[in-house]
Amino acid sequence: MPHPPSPRTAPTGPWIRRFGAADGAVPLVCFPHAGGSAGSYLPLAKQLTPHVETWAVQYPGRQERYRETPFTEVTALADAAFTALRPHLTGPYAFFGHSMGALVAFEVARRCEAETGHGPVRLFASARRAPSVPHRGATGWRDDDALVAELERLGGTIPGALDDPDLRAMVLPVLRADYRAVEGYVCAAGATVGCPLTVLCGDRDPVVTVAETDAWRPHTTGAFDVTVHPGGHFYLDARAAEVAAGIIGALTGPTQRL
Description:
This protein is of the alpha/beta class.
């Protein structure tokens, strides 16, 4: 029996930005990386249109929400995001999270399954070690220069781009809050989702190695697969077309669950 069509009422409110809208397309709810905003998913959204519709989550503290205090706990952020998303998730949908966003997406998916009885048809977790693997290092508590150096090391900004004091004052508080959230995150024992799980990573990512991606496997009771792309932590910037092709195939191909 076919599933009902994906929700066609455009999401409203401060939490969701709708990109690449298309009638009948499956919504892919995207969760940004530490320091990232909904706008970071625009390149991917262009590649997904018209096959998949992109809903990008806008965390507090960035872009038009810059006056709001950013969260410093992944679980609290997931609680708030779930509350905002829940009214709109009335048909088939999928989740995609990059880096910190992978942890947030995982936690929101768990809440969807527990509270509504149905979760995403697939979870895409990108550039992040498994929830049960402790965070390596401690960047969130460093001084500004060290925090900028860490961001540059991961390829999250062009070297020298954050030399401007005003720009630092705008970017670093949000980035530090996000890093604190990641560093303090503790996964509940035995936490899983029931949907298929696709893990993506770059082959030169200093945050998660290809070998470490398999640690995600126990976190789903559904199908599991790994996709490796050329690049580092922000491989997605250069590989949006390839990533989009994989997402489209997973969500609209002959083996999809919609």
